[in-house]
Specification:
GO molecular function, one term: copper ion binding
Oligomer: single chain
InterPro entries: CopC/D, CopC_dom, Cu-Rt/internalin_Ig-like, Ig_E-set
Keywords: Copper, Membrane, Metal-binding, Signal, Transmembrane, Transmembrane helix
Strand content: 25-35%
CATH class of one domain: Mainly Beta
Largest sheet: 5 strands, mixed
Strand order of the largest sheet: 2-9-8-4-5
Order of helices and strands: HEEEEEEEEEHHHH
Number of helices: 5
Subcellular location: Cell envelope
Pfam families: CopC
Shape: rod-shaped
Amino acid sequence: MTTTPVRHRRSAAPRAILVGLVTAVALLLGASTASAHDTVIGTAPGDGETLTTAPTQVTVETSAVPQSIGSRMVITASDGTVLFDGEPTISDRVASVELPAVANDSYQVAWRLVSSDGHPIDGTFGFVVDDPAAVTPTEDPTSDAATPTADETTVAATTDAAPSEDSTTATAADTSDDGSSTSWIPVALIVVVIVGLVLLVLFRRRSALQDNS
């Protein structure tokens, strides 16, 4: 009667070991299944990164090669303008999108990929473009040089309308020369008339003297 409990204890030990082994295998299988999902290694640009040069593409790199179907990437500017909305290009473990020329602004990227085991993965990240050499679209660097100001227009009109001092002096000199060249004509006429009258008087006196003699 004293040996029966010992037998029960010995028979229960293998069962406990078997249950432990099954539990451990189940946990390992669950862990391996969970670790099979692809993970994101990095993005370019990085999340929250400020770039001094506008990027030419946006990329998402995963731990395994994602499937080419079911992928999507949406890139928007701060005002809601959509720069891209469609399937990215899958090359090895990198999903990429070529960007058009982008201005200084903040941008948001939303992506969705299908991992190699068929499970979808997604995420978002943002970046800022702050290029000191970039020209803001509202600025027109040629407008100030091409459009004269009101003061410049007034000065130009006054300059064109008012004759210069040199031209005024030249005109006055020409007028003075013309006047001096013709002012002797009346004097000559008067002298001719006086000489004629004197000769006429002398001639008449001479004729009268001859008649008297």
